TrEMBL record:
Residues 1-37, 356-375, 381-422 are annotated as: Disordered. The keyword S-adenosyl-L-methionine does not apply. PANTHER family: P21-ACTIVATED PROTEIN KINASE-INTERACTING PROTEIN 1, PAK1 INTERACTING PROTEIN 1. This is PAK1 interacting protein 1. It is found in: Nucleus, Nucleolus.
Amino acid sequence: RLRNSRGGPRPRGCPGVLNSGSGSAWPASATGGWKDPRRRLRAWGKEDPCRAGQMELVGGCYEQILFGFAVRPGQNWTPIPDFTHHAHTASLSAVAVNNRYVVTGSRDETIQIYDMKKKIEHGALLHHNGTITCLEFYGNAHLLSGAEDGLICIWDTKRWECLKSIKAHKGHVTSLSIHPSGKLALSVGTDKTLRTWNLVEGRSAFIKNLKQNAHIVKWSPSGEKYVVVVNNKVDVYKLETASVSGAITTEKRISSVRFITDSLLAIAGDDEVIRLYDCDSQKCLCEFKAHENRIKDIYSFEKEGLQVIVTASSDGYIKLWSLDLDKIQDSPSLLCEVNTKARLTCLAVWLDRPSETKENPDNATTSSYVNEDEQPLITRKKKVCWTDNRDKSAKGDRQVTPKKRKSEGAQQRKKMKLQSSK
């Protein structure tokens, strides 16, 4: 269900917000008709800093606010306040971005949608009956959401309709991750299971029992490995064997992980330090103090050949760091910082990206460069399996032929009896 974020009534056929109707325009306010109730996040001017392929730091907080800070890399990476929006009626718990939209999840059980091209509220998704715990885009066509009601929903981002609702876990869904191919997804929940999902058929493919509840799962950029986080421990799995190939343990509980490359993993926890680990050797290659309080979320991307790590902390600061992959032992250098003066909970970076801008490969599953025509995610609630249909038709042919032969033989025998009686 997609509704207007203000919750008021609207006529049928109004574009984009509530349904895909006839696409008729909103009547002009001068006629006393309906106005478009979608609120703008900010009134844009001609000199808006977030145009022409720029970027926007997007952060959610306990205070129900969604922050937006425009950053222009060519001007010393200076963050400029772009908008503050009262997004939900409860604290924000998750945020995700693709090439056009920013979506936020909250303890108010709704998913709010924002069109960043037009800078307007686009509506809200109402399906879950619990706190939204995780959101992840696959290209520009699909969104996966998980919540404390145990459901994983697959959304069509063109019409904003729920294509599939899966009862994924007996408890809460705490985290999910989509394979770069789009054919598989992983999820963990409070039922002490790690589940693999076949997104082509929309069903469970494998269930692994865990000794404890995991709260983070993440695919590597290549999809050849994935990590599962339980408290202060990271288990590294290989896809081929579906078994643990190594483990990383930290002193405090882990709050966020991010693949910088296929073998380089950034880990943040309930302290002020970010650590970079080699997933193959499980060795810490670098650690640096990023904040004065615990770190809540990490994001990363590549911009103009520069590897950037973005961090958000409970102290209210969002910081951007430049990482030199050739000198990984050196601490990243601080590019810029901004104080939101709020208790941050989640973080993302929306890139109005030209062709040369690349998001970090960890976000390959949410990259806009995926060819949507080749995306294997579910496109309809009703599954159509061409292989099964071909098998059924072949069996049908084999059944028809003997019947015809049998009837022909019976007719011949009947004719022979008639001739003999004569």
